[in-house]
């Protein structure tokens, strides 16, 4: 009997998540234009779509996608400064809803609203997979001035090298400042030393 309790809890978890999604959507609908509530609804629905393997639960979650898209649109209109984040979350939602063909345009819209690391990394991944190296450095150049934290700078520089297919740091960071190249080399050495016994 005790062995069934964890299994029963596992079965109830997706149902509870689905109920949470509905509550968050309703809260956002009561406050149209509220970016935080729209974001909560979007992330909750995305998480259910990402996590569930049950076809019935997935179908039920899919019925909410259009409503959440409308909430995101209202939130962007009311809060243009939040557009980059909201567009990226919408892209993630649609990706998990199986609408992958719409994702790149949303990521590009996020980047157009304001260059940001999440959009840059997504675009670099897309361009790298498609072998569109000519599009990599413009994204890197455009994004770099908007990053302050070292972890973000490292993430961008590393992704730019990888997406470009460059065989050396110098060629992969030919677009970067001497300071960024020196930072990348130092950080790469530090990270390699940290994993080498």
Number of strands: 0
Biggest β-sheet: count, sense, barrel?
Answer: none
Q: Radius of gyration from the CA trace?
A: 20 Å
Q: End-to-end span in angstroms?
A: 48 Å
**Percentage of β-strand residues:** under 5%
The portion of residues assigned to helices is: over 70%
What series of H and E elements makes up the topology? HHHHHHHHHHH
Helix and strand content put the structural class at mainly alpha
Structural domain tally: 2
What value does the average pLDDT take? 90
Put simply, the count of helices is 11
- Give the low-pLDDT segments: 1-16
Large-scale geometry: elongated
Overview of this structure, please?
The model is unreliable at 1-16 (pLDDT under 50). Helix 2 packs parallel to helix 5 (83-96). The chain has helices at residues 4-30, 35-51, 55-62, 65-78, 83-96, 103-113, 117-130, 136-143, 150-164, 169-172, 178-195. The protein is mostly helical and 197 residues long. The chain folds into two domains: 1-113, no CATH class; 115-197, no CATH class. Helices cover 76% and strands 0% of the residues.
Characteristic key phrases:
about 200 residues, mainly alpha, 11 helices, elongated
């Amino acid at each position: 009997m005790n062995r069934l309790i964890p299994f029963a809890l596992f079965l109830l978890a997706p149902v509870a998540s689905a109920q949470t999604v509905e509550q968050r959507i309703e809260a956002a609908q009561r406050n149209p234009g509220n970016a935080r509530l729209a974001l909560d609804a979007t992330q909750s629905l995305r998480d259910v779509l990402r996590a569930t393997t049950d076809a019935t639960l997935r179908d039920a979650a899919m019925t909410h996608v259009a409503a959440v898209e409308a909430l995101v649109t209202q939130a962007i209109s009311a809060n243009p400064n939040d557009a980059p984040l909201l567009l990226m979350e919408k892209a993630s939602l649609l990706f998990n809803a199986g609408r992958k063909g719409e994702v790149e345009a949303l990521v590009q819209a996020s980047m157009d609203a304001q260059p940001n690391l999440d959009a840059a990394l997504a675009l670099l991944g897309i361009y790298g997979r498609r072998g569109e190296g000519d599009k990599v450095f413009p994204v890197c150049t455009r994004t770099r001035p908007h990053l302050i934290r070292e972890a973000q700078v490292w993430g961008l520089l590393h992704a730019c090298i990888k997406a470009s297919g460059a065989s050396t740091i110098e060629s992969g960071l030919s677009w970067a400042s001497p300071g960024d190249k020196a930072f990348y080399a130092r950080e790469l050495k530090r990270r390699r030393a940290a994993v080498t016994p």
